[in-house]
Amino acid sequence: MSENLRTAPPAAAPSPRGRKPKGPSVRTDIQALRALAVSVVVAFHLWPERVPGGYVGVDVFFVISGFLITLHLVQKPPTSLAGLGSFWARRVRRLIPAAAIVLVATTAASWLWLPSTQFADIARQVTGSALYVQNWVLADSATDYLAAENAPTPVQHYWSLSIEEQFYLFWPLVIAAVVALRRAWLPVVTALIFAASLAWSIHLTDVDPGAAYFVTPARIWELLLGALVALAVHRGLGLGRAGGPVALLGLALMVVAVFGFDRDTAFPGSAALVPTLGAALVLLAAVERGGPWGWRPVQVVGDWSYPIYLWHWPLVVIAPLALGADQSWATDAFVLVATVALAGLTVRFVEKPLRFHPRVVARKRATFAMLAVATVLSCGSAWALTAAPDDASSSGLAMTPVEARDDKPAVYPDDCWASAPFTTHPVCHYGAEDSDRRVALIGNSHAGHWQPALATVAEDRGWTLDTYLASQCYTVDVDIAFPDPAATRGCRDWNAENLRRIVASRPSLVVISNRTVTMPLADVDPEDAQDVAQRAYADTLDRLTSRGIPVLVIRDTPAAAGNVPDCVALNADDLTACDRPRSAALESDPLAAAGRADDSGLVTVLDVSDRFCDDETCRVVVDDQIAYFDHGHLTATFSRSLAPEVARAAARAVRSASGAPR
């Protein structure tokens, strides 16, 4: 997404009739590479099943940017503050106007068509995008299981621009410092930073893949790979006749990544070497002979690649809602046409006029003033969005959708969770202090949403509630197929250790609840998964009941079709639009099945499905209360409303330990 340069522009021929010679023309191979990169990104966002690895187009952009910027900087090293200012001013004119226009337009479109429940997240990310720290905002969300499940915002794609802008701030300073000391060290310094970043990327992808995807230290090596190619080209390295085969090899590597990678690929890490090395080989080959990548449409897409990238994602997110239709070939066609049209208008009326305006070019102050105005407008639009009224605020519900979204059990703000790779073992305590009647709650997030109800019961009866909770990790002594093998091992170890701790504490009652269907068991045929999971849960129950500990199993609650507060905000006039058929909402629950099959006399099963569902339909608004704060986790308020049912079931379970009739 940087300006175009010829690596070795030919000497200008004499100008006929006294006209000035033209400057170096655009490298057609780089424009074609840009066209490929943006095309696969757009295709991935529209048709992820057909182009499962299209996200690597962003990595190709990184290599191109590192190459072009480094080539410019080594040809004209910034040796003063004025030189650095001139470099940054060119970046501002090239990137900021279009980015700000899209941010403001997207914020306005979000206010018009998206649910108010998303406004806070959108505003936060618009601000992060305007300040070019969006990648860090998303990295923070990626480590939060619930935040990671929020609907993607229409400015989420600014994370890659943030990394590039951070590179544009950092890299000229490094080059200036190295050139001032000893220019010959530049390749070595570049290679060392590249190697350190790549090593960190590989490590972080293994231990924290969500953060690794976004944080700058794990991504900067991709731009520095382009920088290494630029340094080689600047020193005169060329491939000659080998350029054609090398370019084809590079193209093949990118195609392998585009169609061979998918969402389950551990990325970036070492996998990102495939598309980035492919892009680096194409840049090094510098093949510009005739062929498909010299065709005019390809060159136009390459020239417009930056605004195409900016516009496509907001349209992907907002267009179906604006059109009142689910995603289809018709909505996809609309997104494509609108993306190209808006990109062309942006180039014609925003990019070129401001990038090349003589007065703006001649005055760095004017350029940085433009930056300040763009930032203020973008952040101001984000602030205005947060001040917008809440949808459905007058719908007669006990709480608004925004209030429901934030109505989470105390275990979330209290940080009572173990998250992948499950190396921590937090335990939180609620109810009476130091009671001799202790209740242990164990399971994943669908156990966590019972904490408000259980805490209410504990307070009423003088019990102490201890929570043993792990995001996504359900309570079985078999391997669960997490994408990260370390999480698979960690989950199994976490369950073993916390069951040991619970047994050792001799609680008066253990409460277990889990959502099982979203995470498959490792190395188990899907047709056998239900039976294997039920046997694994039976072993877990036996570990407790064999020591005389009574257990209350709470059957998993119905699952909504999507984010419930969002749906309620969009359908305030017809809340039945958010309901779901009972057959689809009630997912299989092998834990409840194991509880019902247990013959120890110490297992009680509580099923509250009828509070949500009749014979045919499950509701997401029950007795004027929004039942969920997302797609399937109970709001704290609705969980507390179920305390009477939980109290009766808990009493039956405790009595079972003394042999009383159940």
From TrEMBL:
<dbReference type="GO" id="GO:0016020">
    <property type="term" value="C:membrane"/>
</dbReference>
<dbReference type="InterPro" id="IPR002656">
    <property type="entry name" value="Acyl_transf_3_dom"/>
</dbReference>
<protein>
    <submittedName>
        <fullName>Acyltransferase</fullName>
    </submittedName>
</protein>
<feature type="region of interest" description="Disordered">
    <location>
        <begin position="1"/>
        <end position="25"/>
    </location>
</feature>
<keyword id="KW-0812">Transmembrane</keyword>
<keyword id="KW-0012">Acyltransferase</keyword>
<feature type="transmembrane region" description="Helical">
    <location>
        <begin position="245"/>
        <end position="261"/>
    </location>
</feature>
<feature type="transmembrane region" description="Helical">
    <location>
        <begin position="368"/>
        <end position="385"/>
    </location>
</feature>
<keyword id="KW-0808">Transferase</keyword>
<keyword id="KW-0472">Membrane</keyword>
<dbReference type="Pfam" id="PF01757">
    <property type="entry name" value="Acyl_transf_3"/>
</dbReference>
<feature type="transmembrane region" description="Helical">
    <location>
        <begin position="211"/>
        <end position="233"/>
    </location>
</feature>
<dbReference type="InterPro" id="IPR043968">
    <property type="entry name" value="SGNH"/>
</dbReference>
<feature type="transmembrane region" description="Helical">
    <location>
        <begin position="329"/>
        <end position="347"/>
    </location>
</feature>
<dbReference type="InterPro" id="IPR050879">
    <property type="entry name" value="Acyltransferase_3"/>
</dbReference>
<feature type="transmembrane region" description="Helical">
    <location>
        <begin position="306"/>
        <end position="323"/>
    </location>
</feature>
<keyword id="KW-1133">Transmembrane helix</keyword>
<feature type="domain" description="Acyltransferase 3">
    <location>
        <begin position="29"/>
        <end position="346"/>
    </location>
</feature>
<feature type="transmembrane region" description="Helical">
    <location>
        <begin position="188"/>
        <end position="205"/>
    </location>
</feature>
<feature type="transmembrane region" description="Helical">
    <location>
        <begin position="54"/>
        <end position="74"/>
    </location>
</feature>
<dbReference type="GO" id="GO:0016747">
    <property type="term" value="F:acyltransferase activity, transferring groups other than amino-acyl groups"/>
</dbReference>
<feature type="domain" description="SGNH">
    <location>
        <begin position="424"/>
        <end position="647"/>
    </location>
</feature>
<dbReference type="Pfam" id="PF19040">
    <property type="entry name" value="SGNH"/>
</dbReference>
<dbReference type="GO" id="GO:0009103">
    <property type="term" value="P:lipopolysaccharide biosynthetic process"/>
</dbReference>
<feature type="transmembrane region" description="Helical">
    <location>
        <begin position="95"/>
        <end position="114"/>
    </location>
</feature>
<feature type="transmembrane region" description="Helical">
    <location>
        <begin position="267"/>
        <end position="286"/>
    </location>
</feature>
